[in-house]
Amino acid sequence: MQRDEIYQLLKQKYGFDEFRPGQYQVISDLLAGQDVLAVLPTGTGKSLIYQFAGTLLPGLVVVISPLISLMQDQVAHLNYQGEKQVAALTSQVDFQTRQLTLRQLPQLKFLFVSPEMLKQPAVLTAIQRVKLALLVVDEAHCISTWGPDFRPDYLGLGQLKQQLGSPLTLMLTATATAQVRQDIVQQLQVPQAQQVIYSMNRPNIYLAVANLSNEADKRERLRQLLTTAATPAIVYFSSKKQTELIAEWLRSTTNLRVAAYHAGLSAEDRFKIQQQYMTGQLDVICATSAFGMGLNKADVRLVIHYHLPTTLADYVQEIGRAGRDGQQSLAVLLYAPGDEQLVRNLNELTMASANQIQADYQRFQQQQPVPDELAAVLQFYWEHHYSVSQVVDIFDARQRQKQRELQQLLAYIQTADCRRAILMSHFGEATVPHREACCQLAGGAIPLAELGLTAGSVTTTPTTTSWKSLLDQLFLQKI
Amino acid sequence: MFADYLLGLFATEPRRAKAVYNVCRGRRTVSTLFAGLTYQELAWLDSWHGVPLEKFEAAAQTLVEAGWLTAPQAGYWQLTPAGEAQQVKLKKTLYQPVAWQQFQQVDVRRFTALSQLALQVVSEYSHQAKRYYPVTTDPGIQAVVKGWFRRWRSADLVAMIVTELREFLTTLSTELATIFVQSLTGYEQPGQTDQQLAEQFNRSVVEILVIRKDLSCQWVAWLQAHPDGPLADLLRPLVKINSVSTSAWQTYQTFLQTPDLDQIAGRRHLKLSTVREHLLETAILITDFPFDRLLTPTIVAPLDQLFGSETAVSTWRFDQVQAAAPILDFFWFRLYQIMRCQRAA
């Protein structure tokens, strides 16, 4: 397909004159039949790539996606864009609907699945029967970060890809170090894949860290930031309970419209909160990291981390939800001494000692059922004929890696130099010279006014409308 | 709190905790249904579908700690005098569902999801909006609503829907009608979450959840009484003729032709024990079960002698029957119990 035709389609289908950086190159490589690993910064419109390629290539586009809420967002977004032949197979879809979806695969254009779902024989067989246009591994860094000790089915993707007849493959991520990129192409067995790599740097996001002495100060600083800096804002927490407690506290102590968002909410409430936020009916979302992966809100001005992210890569992903419109935005990480313990606790959840691993191998040999999550992970290795010592080494390496990542995160927090330089060198990129609008150096204040990020006028809570007038607003009747 | 509603399910006589739990989560075994019948809680069947046992136990534990519930023996709970007073108080202040019996006969949860998406589709359609995020991405729900919209799409559809909604909503209090409408999703209105409604109406989130489930049930009941409109069409496939399971109902139909249980088993290719289970289920769930066809005077006589004047059916013990009339097995005893409950009601 000629360049002109591609641009014509872009205009016609999406209304854009230009691609975002990287999009065109990836699409044209795919159309030339090349597997592609694309590392494109957050907010680049990665989903447009497979949508676009899917429109041009005959057959089904299978998108492997890590989270149910993300898949639901992606389906809703494609629906929004008028794409009807799209479905997600998740554990939340009941058995009958799942069967129906599998029967209707030949009529579908896009199917979203998790690695765990894809591996199920009924699903795999059904997909094997249809022509595949493209296999997409979204958030492909999960292969490297979640595969070894959390979701080992990510490690089985290479084999699944073969079972699907090695279709054209697109691997997408916003954050991948050289090591992670190598893990991805190795695990997916695509050494020849084109690598399209753009800088992860988002120059319009000002980077700041607030070093505080305790929890109370953190709360106060949070409130101060949210009432003085421009919103819409997202505040990230590492626990569901905290999102609710702080959201309630902010509602009662400020005029801001605040809601909590986490995986414990019903799908309906999650939808409502996202849409309220998208349509400007909320100023602040207090969320766990599940929020925002599939969010297409361009004007998020502020992302605050109340708790530490687990890695710098996660941090880059999460702050990347700010400023997708290209306008100046702000990312603030709140830190109090001891916060790193939460990350350590989280890391320990996936830890396994040599004794535990050995004991589980015996369980496997005796054909005992899988008793817990750790055994479920180990089961993958036993089924793939790994030895105990190999698995011990893998788990050791992963824990050491996690400790290194925590140290790198702390280095970002504690640095006296340019924070952006730390981020960029972490991803193996050449750094850019520090300037005023880049980041807050240790001890400095956040120049809200200079950044044009001072809070706007206070919003008032809407008064209750009667159900009759609400009904009239919902359903427009021609008179 | 969930615990407040849980307290309402216990009484001053001991009730089996597991049975109450199974009624709430909708486990349709004969023993659960029988417990629902004797505790007069069949209307709660499946009302807390999928509630995890841990949540149920944790809620009960808070009631024990508050001094409102006590365990007279392992696995049983009963109200303390303070618990009884609290229950009376809560029944006055806490929203009490009025239409939950719909859960027995209608797949209310599925209808709620279908109705939510269908109303969104019509709302967006009325504003001629073509690009919007659907409230659910469940492919099954989307497919049904798509088919429905194709059938009903016309110049009159919006007016028909509004008329139906208005008529239904005027049967409700202003508070309930407002909660119903504010929780809807439509054009430029994502709808309020349970948390937001709870704050606005000064109720707990669980209470809003109960109210919204009850509103769905009331909406279902209203549509069944007004069966000609577009939304009743969406509901129709989800309504069973009664709450008996399909298989048990088939067994019952065969029983109406021949009362011989062995013959029924042969015709239905079922074990005798399954036939008996089916008949017990039907006897519990319908009001006009012909008990006399099975409970002949020979069977009833020793049972009447034992329990004739006893009204607390759930306290009767099968070993009493075994001692008095060893030829009667458990099936006859249970059927007799059900008959006595139904007749007392």
From TrEMBL, chain A:
One GO MF term: DNA binding
Matching PROSITE patterns: DEAH_ATP_HELICASE, HELICASE_ATP_BIND_1, HELICASE_CTER
Example of a GO biological process term: DNA recombination
Record keywords: ATP-binding, DNA-binding, Helicase, Hydrolase, Nucleotide-binding
Classification via SMART domains: DEXDc (SM00487), HELICc (SM00490)
Coiled coil (UniProt feature): none
Any Pfam family the entry gives: Helicase_C
GO cellular component terms listed in the entry, alphabetical order: bacterial nucleoid; cytoplasm; replisome
Helicase C-terminal domain segment(s): 221-378
InterPro entries: DEAD/DEAH_box_helicase_dom, DNA/RNA_helicase_DEAH_CS, DNA_helicase_ATP-dep_RecQ, Helicase_ATP-bd, Helicase_C-like, P-loop_NTPase, RecQ_Zn-bd
Domain of life: Bacteria
Domain Helicase ATP-binding: 27-194
Cross-referenced PANTHER family: ATP-DEPENDENT DNA HELICASE RECS-RELATED (PTHR13710:SF84), DNA HELICASE RECQ FAMILY MEMBER (PTHR13710)
Listed name of the protein: ATP-dependent DNA helicase RecQ
TrEMBL record, chain B:
InterPro entries to which the protein is assigned, alphabetical: Helicase_HTH
Domain Helicase Helix-turn-helix: 250-301
Protein name: Helicase Helix-turn-helix domain-containing protein
Species of the source: Lactiplantibacillus mudanjiangensis
